[in-house]
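Morning run. Coffee first, then this:
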Amino acid sequence: MKGSQERGRKPSQIFKKGHVVAPTVQQIQNDVLTEYAIKYWAPRSSERAPYDPEVIEKIYKEEMLGSKFSIKRMMLLEFSQYLEEYLWPHYDPQNASIYHVISIAVMVNEKVRERVQAWEFLRDRPDSFRGLFRQIMDIATDDWEKVTIKEQTVLLMFLIHCFNSLEKDIIRREIQGLVSIAIWTCLIPGRLEQEIQRNPKYKKRLNSIQKAYTKADNETQRILNKERNFLWKSMHNFLDVLNKISKSGPISADLIQYCERYLEFIIDIEAAMPTRRFFNTLLDSCGFVVNCQLSSLIQREEGRLFGQLLEMLKFYAAFEINDHTGTALSYHEITDTHYDRITALQRVAFKHFPELRDVALNNVASIDTRDSMIKHLNDLSYEKLHELTAYLNLVPRVDDTDKKYEKNYLIELLIYKYERRLSQLDAINDMPLYPTEEILWDENIVPSEYYSGTDCLALPKLNLQFLTLHDYLLRNFNLFRLESTYEIREDIEDGVSRMKPWSTEDNMTQFSGWARMAQPIVAFTIIEVIKPNIGENRPARVRADVSVNLNIRKEVKREWEGLKKHDVMFLVTIRATAGPGQKYDKMKPFKAQYGVEYVRGCEIEGMLDEQGKVIEEGGFEAKPDFKSDGRTFRVWLDTNQYQQDIANTVHGAEDVYETFNLLVRRKPKENNFKAVLDTIRNLMNTECVVPDWLHDVFLGYGNPAAANYTNMPTQINMLDFNDTFLTSDHLHDSFPDYKIQWSTEDCSKHVPPFRLTFLNLPNHGKKRKIDVEENTSCKEILVEPYVIENRGPYPSSQPKRNCIPFTPVQIEAIRSGMQPGLTLVVGPPGTGKTDVAVQIVSNLYHNFPDQRTLIVTHSNQALNQLFEKIIALDIDERHLLRLGHGEESLETEKDFSRYGRVNYILERRLQLLNEVARLQESIGIHGDVSYSCETAGHFFHYQILSRWEEYVNRIEAVKDVKAVAEQFPFTKFFDDAEQPLFTGKSFIRDLDIAEGCFRHIKKIFTELEEFRAFELLRNGVDRSNYLLIKEARIVAMTCTHAALKRHDLVKLGFKYDNVLMEEAGQILEIETFIPLMLQNPEDGQSRLKRVVLIGDHHQLPPVIKNMAFQKFSNMEQPLFTRFVKLGVPTVDLDAQGRARGSLCKLYSWRYKRLENLSHTAAWPEFQLGNPGFQFDYQVIDVGDFQGVGESEPNPHFFQNLAEAEYIVAVYMYMRLIGYPKESISILTTYNGQKHLIRDVVNMRCADNPLIGKPHKITTVDRFQGQQNNYILLSLVRTKAVGHLRDVRRLIVAMSRARLGLYVFARTSLFQNCYELSPAFNILLQRPTKLQILPKENWHNFSRKLDEKSEDEFVIIDDMPQMTHYVYQLYSAQTNIEYPNETATSYSSDNGNDDVTNTDKPTQSDAETKMEVDVKK
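And here it is:
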């Protein structure tokens, strides 16, 4: 049968099926659905026909159901805005047909599949959703027989999406009734009574529910019955379908897909606490898991995915959590629960079933295994077995039901209930970290690149809520492991295919190819297997030697010899089946074609020298010379995997470790997965403490605002804002809703810095609501100006000051970041996120000198930008530390890495000791007091301090201004300061100068005291570790470095109090969590006081390479975005200073409020127009060139030659009229176009000193977080919108330019896209033909933006005209005669690379050469 073959999940079929091709513009225009759209609902139609319900029925029957819900047809309907413009506006809950209801469900499903906003349509008529949801419930249960199994799957997917969208209030209200305690009315009476005895608090609730039900009218009772019975009926309908599947014979693919989707539906309910709380009991009561276990489907080949999903369901059904309190169960609690359950069974057996006397009298350990239970239960008759299960409330009593249960079912039910289960943590600890051949090529677990979103997968999902921290870590562990597996599979396939394995006549495998990343194994030997640790069954360590022959190019040889400790490699067994020269079909399964038998991972300990010793890394000895090309690596094997493999050999399996013949390595930057997985697993095994104030919010429960500083009991009343405010007026403007009180009435003293005391803060104890309202209505601030202490007479002693006039919202973000709790700052483009982050760090540094702050970002570039701004503030650089790679790109001569800081401290120590020697000389003391920090300390206490105290006493006694200078004991020391040192005019002023001088001296000795440990620690590693855990107060690193080094940091005793994350919207969920856990708890409590996340969820999320993990598992969702969706309060920055106000309109619609700072209208660069252009932004319509628009040489490698040539021509035009090349960046939405544009620029501009290369040519995704004055943007696509439908990518693209944005696109395609319409509606208000003013020049330009040019503008019709115009301009400027050239021709025939258009003027040789190179 076609269905069974399709469900076989062969990679070749997945490849063909998964790569869904979107309908082209031509197909859309010629399609019958387009005719319907134009006639009935298209937004740009001039006249619409009246609503006709028969149109919906016809489209449903012919185009939806008739095409079996073809993705192509559904994409076309969804893109035409069928849901927003026709289905939903005309939906009437009272009269809507079944076709109308299912059509809406189909469109919602399609939107979710395409990852666009699925529920936006509900904003227009939210009240109608209740009617829609109830109709879908009716069809899915009561009207079950009226629809096909395919349609039931559609409705089921709609319900799945609803259950995964509980953050939407309108959806949550409908879901709550389906999973409330009222569903327990479906339980058998005995089970209900049993649950109430366990949880007496529910008795009252159930009684009140029953009373309300009795008093309700008939219609309300009908609705309540429908809600409480829905899931019970639905599960029984599913089990009826499942039980009809036979063990053999033909089977429908639609039926299997329905069964898989139903398990996904149940897993999603079980995996969230609000839906699981009462449903888990209902699931257990109907024996759902056991019924699925005994089904015929699970025994069939087509049921493999069903079986994997069932394992996930069993895991969540028995999850180690208290369903009613939501608290995680400890190992002892789980054990106690198991023993209580077994002893209860023993009591029942002893009292009522003498046949089970052995069960009643044996110890628990002897009867709680599967084999033991089968042995005892098989001896019971069916009647006794039914009586036992009924007595235990697992099935109804014989008198209460006519249903006949199979004996096997009853036995399995008892085993499922009472069998001892392996601890979930033990299962994780026994799991190998490296993927094997079984996982690598399993499409159900690691799907191919072309996952379309239509199939169900056996993968966990990252939703908004998690059951426990263990559940959170486990889901992330599995997804990170599988995402890494996908990348490993690609690397292994690439290495193996390049090696070209073939089989000899005696069935030996030889390699006729060559690969940079793979080498044939000469020898492999296990050299050490250490016996297991106490309580474990796996070896403590397994080491092996693997030898290869590196008779290869020198640079590749150096790469192999440069492999470092802890790098990961893969041992592969290839048993080739084909002869030499055999061609392989990429469309067929890789594993079978190439004969990949086994894959095992290993971790390098080191390379061996010729004496067999491991060569130490970073040692003082030079690397030894080798006489031959043979190299041997000593590696650690995965002990769990080794244990499993050896156990299999006992049962007759082959010894894997005698078969390896290929060694594959990976790029170091992509090879850190094992360290991250180790970190996650270690977190699961340690007392992983999230701060109490963050725990519930982190898991997604309780009050989302509970961790906000306004609700924290530890809120601080008085804060020192240091240099945050520039003036007193700035302070007044920053708190428009507050009444400002000054501690002094002298206005001359109202100068910063200020300490602010917030008065009338609410009390977080139990308080009447009216009191809270009274407090919030009278908000007051007491402002206390203060003077910073004099730090010394030198200019370098003066504190650095902030010069940024922060807006009121930025001030609120800074205030929130200084307070204890969770702070989320949403920063639209150009709103000063980094400046806010830096000020928060600075204020924390000055307010809490005993606390340490950890700064984390996604990229080294962002971390460097942040660090460069921190260096510029009033923060002592000895307290700054930058961990990880990337510090070398800091734009400063100072080295802030660990060893750089150690060197700085050692150098600084010598400088300070020289100062001590100079001070000693200035006061005439003999002896070597500047020998060490210790001797300097004695000198300070016995000589300096005594002189100062004596001086202070004398001055206080006489209070004479002349005496201040005359008796100052350190005048000679400060001879190098600006003279005169004292003014001689004011006693108070001169005394302040003297105190400042002493503070300067005291600071010298204070620093030396801190550096004293570096004299005692002689080792560079010890010194750097001491610096990290004792000296540094601001530590910065990337999230990747935190994940890789957590074990080392915790082992060192690293401590911190505050975490600030920039780019939080671009960091994976788990990579955000790990930096919060880089320290061990103190007394069972986390010392973490503040978490500040700064990002923008409206811009692009983290990059996930595999579409399945992105679409199905939602792995791209960062913690920042999850918090926003949960409703955690955010501070939304609302004023941008990056771009012109006109450019800001292109993306400001996406934010709650986004205005322009005053300088975007005041600064000259914003007031002037763009030289040579009629407009400051414009979308330029680019047609086909020689009949070709977009092309796709390789899958997803999109190019558009017309746009590439056009964009380069405009760049050349800008350069010719004087634009600096550094101010221009070229962006595109696809990698293929990026490479094409680079090729064109290299041929036309790179070697030309008059033009040169632009600042950057890259993709929109890569340019996130960066900006430039002028952006030329190519959207590439001409057949389908593609991934620009993700509004977040559009926002990034529109917001990179400061002064000018020129978009090159096929406007007819993008203007009809619903998601892009807000931006394109603005763009299309201007002409779509490029309008230039060639007489203007960048160097002497004065035209205002709103002024009309006196020169006549030139309209450019198409790319060839622009290319021709640029060459004419170039010729005129250089006085060189050029032929009348056009753009490069690009033939759509792949076999004819250098065809030119003979109808056009002849090309130059350079252009012809460029054409060939570009095509290649």
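Confidence is low (pLDDT under 50) at residues 1-19, 765-776, 1377-1416. Good start to the day.
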